[in-house]
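Please fill in the sequence for the structure shown.

STRUCTURE ENCODING:
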């Protein structure tokens, strides 16, 4: 891979590059991902010009550099986007690394792309009913009361159609400015279509021999008149999050890993919402677990933040009762071996966009004390993370 010397005219605006990549899908077969890491201002793009690379498993430690996009269902294939072209936008600089002729002509294309007007976009009104979801929550509670499950995370999707052209670049940019602590992504693969998200949840990270994961659960609306430290949580929410932490600790136990640091739970802000979060870190050198990333990715997904406990029973319940395919919602995604780092995030607060239809996805953790109306409202709040931003632009 070579670093391209940028002369001063080769300045590509990243919003325009997003729209150019979407536009290119009409003519060429590419897979690509744009992303921004939490608390960073750097925007990344990688493009793969080969045939879509479907894999059933990944070995993170030996994998080439790229971006992984995995559906919720573990038995379905994941997509690996190879890093053939990699562009990084920092506040005042752009760096381009590329391999091969296709990359070079694609850079030319991005540079010369002229974006068009987007002024006619608007969402069509939709008629949403809560009945189906509330009965699913009721069934979930019954299953828990019958002792078959301890926790389960039923989810739903909501489709909203629109007129006009969606300005992907502007929308991504708005997510970046509204949600500085989220992992923001826009991913296209021929297998998945276009997905956009702003997730608060890290699944695994490996960097400088330090492994990290988090347990995130419990949801309330953010209240600007209250400090995060003063937030009160109900017993139900505290238990719900503790179950996710217990699930993670059980995964460590399965591989006999005893030395890990645990910080939390703490209240954290995620856009318009707040959650309880505990961080777990492991020194992979000291514990002699060089392959902890791959091992934990396999053990953790799907965690009880998005599926439930016991895992098998919760998976079967959701497959039988949810009544729709989650596809890439609550799967995971992120960079692999880029700059010596791998990070995979749970694909939450996301939507899929195709033709003139946006499909939103959200779920809520159900325990014995759940109230169907409240869980419904929670999924509405979660969907609003992205919907409100569409309405604001
Ligand atoms: C399932 C979702 O979020 C997860 C579930 C949460 C909860 O039940 O309180 C909170 C954060 C996430 O771990 C979602 O956003 O769709």
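FILLED IN BY: designer on duty
SEQUENCE:
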């Amino acid at each position: 891979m070579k670093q391209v010397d940028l002369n001063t005219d080769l300045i590509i605006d990243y919003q325009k590059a997003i729209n150019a990549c979407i536009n290119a899908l009409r003519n060429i077969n590419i897979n690509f991902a744009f992303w921004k890491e939490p608390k960073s201002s750097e925007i990344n793009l990688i493009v793969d010009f080969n045939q879509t690379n479907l894999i059933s498993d990944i070995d993170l430690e030996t994998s080439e550099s790229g971006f992984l996009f995995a559906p919720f269902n573990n038995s379905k294939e994941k997509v690996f986007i190879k890093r053939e072209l990699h562009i990084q936008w920092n506040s005042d600089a752009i760096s381009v690394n590329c391999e091969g002729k296709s990359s070079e002509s694609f850079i030319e294309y991005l540079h010369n792309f002229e974006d068009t007007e987007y002024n006619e976009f608007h969402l069509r009104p939709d008629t949403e009913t809560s009945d189906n979801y509330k009965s699913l929550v009721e069934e979930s509670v019954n299953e828990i009361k019958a002792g078959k499950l301890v926790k389960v995370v039923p989810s739903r999707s909501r489709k909203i159609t629109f007129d006009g052209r969606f300005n992907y670049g502007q929308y991504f940019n708005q997510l970046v400015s509204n949600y500085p602590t989220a992992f923001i992504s826009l991913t296209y693969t021929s297998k998945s279509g276009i997905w956009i998200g702003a997730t608060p949840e890290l699944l695994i990270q490996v960097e400088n021999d330090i492994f990290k994961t988090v347990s995130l659960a419990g949801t309330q609306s953010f209240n600007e008149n209250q400090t995060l430290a003063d937030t009160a949580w109900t017993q139900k929410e505290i238990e719900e999050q503790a179950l996710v932490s217990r699930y993670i600790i059980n995964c460590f136990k399965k591989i006999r890993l005893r030395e890990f640091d645990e910080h939390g739970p703490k209240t954290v802000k995620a856009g318009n919402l707040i959650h309880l979060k505990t961080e777990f870190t492991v020194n992979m050198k000291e514990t002699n677990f060089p392959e902890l990333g791959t091992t934990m990715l396999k053990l953790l997904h799907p965690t009880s933040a998005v599926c439930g406990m016991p895992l098998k029973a919760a998976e079967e319940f959701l497959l039988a009762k949810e009544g729709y395919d989650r596809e890439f919602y609550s799967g995971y995604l992120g960079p692999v071996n880029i700059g010596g780092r791998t990070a995979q995030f749970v694909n939450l607060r996301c939507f899929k966009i195709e033709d003139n239809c946006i499909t939103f996805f959200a779920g809520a953790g159900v325990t014995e004390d759940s109230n169907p109306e409240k869980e419904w409202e929670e999924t509405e709040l979660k969907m609003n993370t992205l919907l409100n931003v569409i309405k604001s632009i």
